[in-house]
Amino acid sequence: MSSATPLPVDPEGVITVGIDEVGRGSVYGPVVVGACANLRHWHHDEVRDSKKVGKKKRQGLASLIKQNTRTTLQWGHAWLINERMLAGQSFADVIRELMQRCIDQTDHVLSHQRLPVRYVVDGQPLDLFSRVGTIEFMEKGDNNVFAIAAAAIAAKVAHDDWISERVKADPSLGDKYGLKTNAGYGTPPHIRGLAEHGLTDEHRVVFAETAIRRYHEKKT
Predict the structure, then answer these.
(1) Which among 10, 27, 70, 180 could disulfide-bond with 207, CB atoms 3.0 to 4.6 Å apart, if both were Cys?
(2) Roughly how many angstroms between the first and final C-alpha of the chain, as a whole number?
(3) How far apart are alpha carbons 75 and 115 in whole angstroms?
(4) The pairing of beta strand 31-37 with beta strand 70-76
(5) CA gap 173, 180 in Å, rounded
């Protein structure tokens, strides 16, 4: 067991739905938004900010989270991100769209619940709407709200498993872009790989081209 202080138990008398995203800062692959509806007020002391939990432990916790909560995942693949951003939308618009999809799907599941519903979203306020509950926003929510931390772990494991499957199908992605270890984020080996080998279909065009430009600026 971890010696870190456990997160508070989600409050009784209300259904808490935590929402968080994973892959915001990546240059490769999807952004994944998770929503965790804690209908049974389940708790586990080792659920916390996904970045503070090791890979093996995250995978085990993700299985428990799916068994004990109503978890929804929405995927923003590179093609969607590229389509929206090349059309002039912001990445925040993509995140908002995916979060709204999570809320709409969870609203449908919770529409017959008698308890009030409380959505708690990690991060700064966005234009989101729920038909059945209230929506709150909390900076560093995955450090403070159990349902948000649970959503983040579920999304993190799904995101990283997707990356791993891509590398397994095409090992050259690991060799060229370091995807075996960087989970799609813009590490120096990844950016160097972009500059040397160019973009794949799963790279985010705006992010990757910006990273390549900065790479060449540093070399001059």
Answers:
(1) 27
(2) 50
(3) 29
(4) antiparallel
(5) 8
Contact 59, 157 (CB under 8 A): yes
Cβ(62)–Cβ(145) below 8 Å: no
SS3 at position 62: helix
- Residue 164: both structure tokens together: 């791993």
The neighbour count for residue 67, using CB atoms within 10 Å, is 9
pLDDT, tens digit, for every residue of 12-57? 999 999 999 999 999 999 999 999 999 999 999 999 999 899 999 9
Residue bearing tokens 């093609």: 79
User: Locate tokens 């919770």: which residue?
Assistant: 110
In angstroms, what CA-CA distances link 59 with 9, 13, 66, 138, 180?
21, 30, 11, 25, 17
In angstroms, the CA 203 to CA 132 distance is 37
Whole-number Å distance between alpha carbons of 197 and 173: 10
pLDDT tens, 122-135? 999 999 999 999 99
Query: pLDDT tens digits for 132-178?
Result: 999 999 999 999 999 999 999 999 999 999 999 999 999 999 999 99
Farthest-apart Cα atoms in the chain, separation = 63
The contacts of residue 181 (CB under 8 Å, 6+ apart) are: 187
CA atoms within 13 A on the CB side of 77: 6
Do you know the residue count of the chain? Answer: 220
